[in-house]
Design a protein that fits this description.
The protein is α+β, with helices and mostly antiparallel strands and about 130 residues long. Helices cover about 25% and strands about 30% of the residues. The protein is built from 2 helices and 8 strands, in the order βββααβββββ.
Length: about 130
């Protein structure tokens, strides 16, 4: 699994094998983030992987844990994330939304991706049952 989220003009890369999740924050100038920031990002990604992508199905304590870790990373995020050009395909790691955009469709949970075609067009996709 590979995903990218923008933090302070950089990118959090999620690389997940069956037993490993790690974050590598890289700023626009190519320098790596500090070990503390990478540790927090890795903790956030690991916690989301453990709890699941659909925040509305988690307990209040689980949501609070994710919110606390995410808030710890906020000083390192881009101050204007809506201005960042997005490209490629991104996988959903966590959503607080109770609707279909979180991958929840009735009792089913699907894999959610968002593919950016250009500056204006994108595709939101929910894949159920491995894409069958």
């Amino acid at each position: 699994i590979s995903s990218c989220s923008h933090l302070n003009g950089g990118c959090v890369g999620l690389h997940s094998a069956p037993t490993t999740i790690e974050s590598n924050i890289v700023t626009e100038n190519g320098s790596k983030g500090t070990d503390d920031v990478n540790e927090l990002a890795t903790q956030l990604l690991s916690t989301c992987a453990e709890y699941g992508q659909i925040g509305s199905k988690l307990t209040e304590d689980e949501r609070a844990t994710i919110d606390t870790i995410a808030s710890s990373l906020s000083p390192y995020t881009d101050p204007a994330p809506a201005q960042i050009d997005l490209q490629g395909t991104h996988e959903l790691i966590y959503s607080a939304s109770p609707g279909g955009s979180s991958g929840a469709i009735g009792p089913f949970v699907g894999k959610v991706t968002q593919s950016f075609l250009d500056d204006v067009r994108f595709i939101n996709r929910v894949e159920l049952f491995g894409g069958i």
